[in-house]
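FAQ: What does the model actually see?

It sees only this:
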Amino acid sequence: MENIENIAKDLLVEKGHVKAEVLLNYAHYIERKEGKEGLKRVEDRMAELGASVSLGGSRNVQWMRVGINSLLLLVCKEQFQWTEKDIRDMGYVTSKISFITRMLVRFFVSREKVLKEANRHWRKYFDFGSLEAVDHGDNYAVIEIKGYKGHPLNCHLFAGYIHGISELISKDNKNITVEEIKCIHKGDDGHRFKTTWN
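And it is asked to produce this:
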């Protein structure tokens, strides 16, 4: 079993920042799934671990330490016994409520244009690392995330997020699979996900 206190110390010194909008989207999901009391439990536990955040009150433009992002996932797992599927679902749902994501999909209606703009989209949320489509064809795309270690739970969050975006850019096809084919936590130099439209 993981010692969340020790992991929190490492995560909170991780380099890089994330836009508070990302955490606000997660807060909406947590509140919908676990209620206001559940959201308060997460905030209280985060504070105990050295990451005081107001999940309902941060301004969208504010930047926060990126480790808070991973720590939030760990706290949800601890407090609510969330599974990897729950984390993936959070990524999936939040991909559809993000304002920046909706703008990306609205203005770049073709799959190719969205894939081309992927890293620009990433940089609106994160001040480090990159997200790029390294390969794609008629029924697949390979997305690579570099420079983001975080915690292994992030892999499930990313997979859910990529699945949600894949649905948004392929409105006529809901039969989509997303598989992580490389992982920084398994010794690779980044995360790589293959999305297939069947």
